[in-house]
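In response to the reviewer comment on reproducibility (Comment 2.3), we provide here a single inverse folding case reported in full, input and output, so that an independent group could reproduce the run without further information from us. The structure tokens appear first.
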């Protein structure tokens, strides 16, 4: 039996599909609405949306990850985005996530006190066969191990330039 929060999520998404229509064209407005309500679009949500619209989850992942990049929250000089989607999950993303939290001293969705690094989840970034995968700004890192995290974070801390400067 599904967890209560999953049932609530299904009901919410079902309501959105009723309101916006069951077609593919509803995908973006549904994701926008979910983002407004829940402030994030996690893997479970994407799965439920895919089922509700009868489309492949990968389609939802790619649209949702595109929108994640448009986030309007203030961000650090560098942004590390760890893929939290299924293949990377199976490849060991939890251990990498823990190493990132420990090394940076922040949770996902937060920025270090010095404003240097923001840590975020990403949806699939297209490197599913080489997970765990993460982005440092626009640079892709694949097969990341917890041991790699120290060097990745050190490089971010050492580089004071804004990625978009
Ligand atoms: S599942 Fe992580 S890159 Fe595709």
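Designed residues, in position order:
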């Amino acid at each position: 039996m599904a967890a209560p929060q999953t049932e609530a999520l299904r009901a919410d998404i079902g309501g959105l599909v009723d309101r916006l229509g069951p077609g593919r064209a509803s995908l973006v407005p549904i994701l926008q609405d979910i983002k407004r309500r829940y402030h994030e679009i996690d893997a479970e949500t994407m799965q439920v949306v895919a089922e509700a619209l009868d489309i492949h989850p990968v389609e939802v992942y790619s649209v949702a990850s595109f929108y994640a990049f448009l986030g309007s929250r203030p961000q650090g000089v560098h942004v590390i985005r760890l893929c939290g989607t299924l293949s990377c999950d199976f490849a060991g993303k939890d251990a990498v996530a823990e190493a990132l939290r420990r090394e940076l001293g922040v949770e996902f969705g937060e920025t270090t006190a010095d404003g240097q690094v923001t840590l975020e989840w990403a949806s699939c970034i297209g490197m599913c066969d080489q997970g765990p995968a993460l982005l440092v700004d626009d640079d892709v890192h694949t097969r990341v191990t917890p041991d790699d995290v120290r060097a990745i974070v050190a490089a971010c801390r050492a580089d004071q330039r804004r990625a978009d400067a």
